[in-house]
Amino acid sequence: MRWSAARWPLRVRVALAFLGTTLVALTGLGVFVHVRMSDALEERLRDTLALEADRLTALSPQARLEAVQALGGEVHAQVVAPGGEVLASSPLVAAPLLGSGSTEEALRGTGTGYGRSTVLILDDDASAEGRRDAERETSLLLVRPTDDGRLVTAVSREDADEAMADLRAQLLVGIPLALLVAGVLGYLVAGAGLRPIERMRTHAATISHRNAGERLPLPDADDELRRLALTLNAMLDRLDAGLQRERGFVAEASHELRTPLTLMRTEIDLALARPRDPEELTAALRSVHDEVRRLMALVEDLLGRAAGDGSSLSIRSDTVDLAATARTVADRFRPAAGPREITVLAPGPVELEGDGPRLDRALSNLVDNALRHGAGAIEVEVRTTGHGAVVTVTDEGDGFPPEDGSPAGTSGLGLSIVREIARAHGGSVEVLRRDGRTCVRMELASPTTT
Predict the structure, then answer these.
(1) Domain boundaries, position 182
(2) For residue 210, what is the DSSP state?
(3) Which SMART domains does the annotation name (predicted)?
(4) Among 144, 146, 313, 401, which is disulfide-ready with 424 (CB 3.0 to 4.6 Å)?
């Protein structure tokens, strides 16, 4: 497998990038310091030579010769005749300062100026003891013209060269150590910078369908990581919304399919309870056939809603007689009600422009909820009002248990579906307690009465 830097951990890549940047910066700084120090030492040596040369050239020829012969210390000098003969020399100079061909080559042209040469210089400690021990020193020379020839001054570069050597040694040791420290710091800083991502990753690993409402922690700094966390949380919101819609669809499908299947089973059980004549069996089959048609329409409706976003309920407008629909629903549930009575109270036809199958479902859910969660006789009242129609289903129970975390008697999936259908018809649903009885009141808008 090919080893690629793209496969390295992000923390390592960030640390290496920091290390590379530091290497370039330290190398540039080291070169700058080396050049600046070299120039500074060179300038200092030249200033020293220039000062001494100015002093000597200002003297008379004879005084200059005597001054050169008495010269000691760091600066050495010689007076050279035009023919190359040394007229006077500092005590510690063991050979002509211009004896090097390379020096003459460097000073070719005007024969004056600065140059470098290796010269023989007597050891001052040995000279004090009467010994002439000479050693070669790399020196900087300055040649000035005089009345009697040329004045050559020289100063040793050994101290400057040693200082530069020490600087290079320190840079060679200090830069790697600085890089090591920078690499460790870069790794630690990269880890600290990536720690919020690791916290988000750890928290994201704990999010599942059981705690889909959890969100990633937001970093305190208003930076790219915070914007990333906000984007991921927005994505989790969308996924959570989709999960809730899926759960709602499954719950609604279970609730909606349960009622017709229960009625079908009741019809079949009654038909099989005792021998039936052909007319009774035909009536039972017709009832089952009607329930199968309702079941198929219900499945188609659920599939259509599952394909959409679940945000709205499509309504088909027809003229619906609510009183007749209520009687049909009551007749459908009477076999399942057993000894409990289901009574429909309607002064006459109550016609409404709406969706007949959906209104049938709403009334069926109300009666089904009364059978499941209520007690005693069930009364279905359908009447008109000045601005609409009202359907009230009353039983003697204590109310509905909460099915979706809402307070008892106020919601439940069946009532949620009824509310959705009522809203689609411009109405509303409310649950009331009157004289110890539970009343579910569904108000629908714009009825047409006859």
Answers:
(1) 1-58+160-206
(2) G
(3) HAMP, HATPase_c, HisKA
(4) 313
